[in-house]
Amino acid sequence: MQLVVGSLGQLGCREAEENGAERDRLLTLFRTRGFHHRGPRERSVPLGVVDALASPGDHISYFWESEGEFDAAAGFLAPGVERDEVCVLLGHAAASSRVLAGLERRGVPPDDLERRDRLHTVSGQQPSDAMLQEISDRVRTAVDRGVPMVRVLGNLGWGHPGWPAERDVLRLEARVTDAIRNLPSVGSRVEASCSAASNATR
Predict the structure, then answer these.
(1) Contact 51, 85 (CB under 8 A)
(2) How far, in Å, CA of 73 to CA of 38, rounded?
(3) What's the Cα-to-Cα distance from 94 to each of 26, 34, 74, 83, 123, rounded to whole Å?
(4) Domains by residue range for the chain, with CATH
(5) At 112, phi and psi to the nearest 5?
(6) Closest CA to 190 of 80, 45, 44, 57
(7) pLDDT tens digit string along 90-146?
(8) What residues contact residue 161 under an 8 Å CB cut-off, 6+ apart?
(9) What is the arithmetic mean of pLDDT over 57-61?
(10) CA 3 – CA 127 distance, rounded (Å)
């Protein structure tokens, strides 16, 4: 994680690069608030990418460099559909359209999922508080309906118009993780698997 935080710091302005205290604060935030400190956890959730399993509640970063690797990110949502989960797709319009096309190529019709309230698209090009509220509302609605799990796939808009600056993206990630973790479970087991797909070369 320290390598990731350090590398992301190089993307920002020179003042941010020189501010080691800010980098350390963000690293501490991820270390203290991550699900990885809550004891042994069973990896039982099909990730849908490279045949891997995740533990309920995991927050996974998936960095992609080719179109094929980006398309594979759509595979994260496909097992959720098969398992009767609700999927939330967060991102800018171009990335979300590409993920939806990837689902269609896998024989998973996004329009049908949206009609059945199994797939929700949340625009990342809105104020972060509004974005977090919309994600929270989608997850709460799923909880109230007794859905066993919610998957959130976020395509971060590195350098994309309307998205936070690079050094602010980690803050947004932490807030999304907190928002999902703090949602009530009201009689059903609700966990969110969260994947962030980012192009490391653009």
Answers:
(1) no
(2) 27
(3) 29, 30, 14, 27, 10
(4) 1-33 (no CATH), 41-199 (3.40.50.300)
(5) -65, -40
(6) 57
(7) 888 888 999 999 999 999 999 999 999 999 998 877 777 788 888 888 888 888 888
(8) 125
(9) 76
(10) 28
